[in-house]
Amino acid sequence: xxxxxxxxxxxxxxxxxxxxxxxxxxxxxxxxxxxxxxxxxxxxxxxxxxxxxxxxxxxxxxxxxxxxxxxxxxxxxxxxxxxxxxxxxxxxxxxxxxxxxxxxxxxxxxxxxxxxxxxxxxxxxxxxxxxxxxxxxxxxxxxxxxxxxxxxxxxxxxxxxxxxxxxxxxxxxxxxxxxxxxxxxxxxxxxxxxxxxxxxxxxxxxxxxxxxxxxxxxxxxxxxxxxxxxxxxxxxxxxxxxxxxxxxxxxxxxxxxxxxxxxxxxxxxxxxxxxxxxxxxxx
Length: 283
Ligand code: FES
Hints:
alpha+beta, Rieske Iron-sulfur Protein, 2 domains, four-stranded antiparallel β-sheet, 7 helices, 18% strand
């Protein structure tokens, strides 16, 4: 097993972290309760998670400042200082979006996220100290603090990458889901009551059926945000509300009415033939 994998598994299994991480995630979750703030931080208005996009700014700025510090010479000192400052400023919204996403995680993902956040706070602190040292004439100390910050930043970024690419945190959970393109029978029409949230299978796809005002709607049953089971949610104002973090998806087309989801819920066409409900993927 690669060293990185072994380290990540140790962190994932380090349950003692829960004593701090669990209540802290709860506090962060409460702090981002206003829906507009939550939607903004989650990327709901963008149609894309905000945090991964924002991380490029401080990582890019601090990578370039490290390069200039190492090979740039005296002429590059003002540019290096400017990049250190730009990284510090951009780290604030980046941290806010990351904390918002982290508040939705549980178990091993929450532990990894806690260490990821701690590393990033340490990197930020080192860069603040680096900037202060540069401003007060301590160029050598400022460079060393910046390079130390960069090392910590890389370790934090490794864990962030693991959360996204190995654990699929904040990845659209319906993206790879199989959806039948042909009409597929899923249920006898008489078995679906008005206002019921009914999970059915269309081939290998898990589909949510809802009859509202006599019309039958079908959406992918796995929530795009983090995989919550929509059939265990509730209905409100023509939407299904996810039971895990409260995203609201319009029944008619799966569009997001309320985050934190940033990807809409795949919708199906429906029809009734010979007393059976049939569905097929839209588009
Ligand atoms: S899993 Fe998070 S809102 Fe559905």
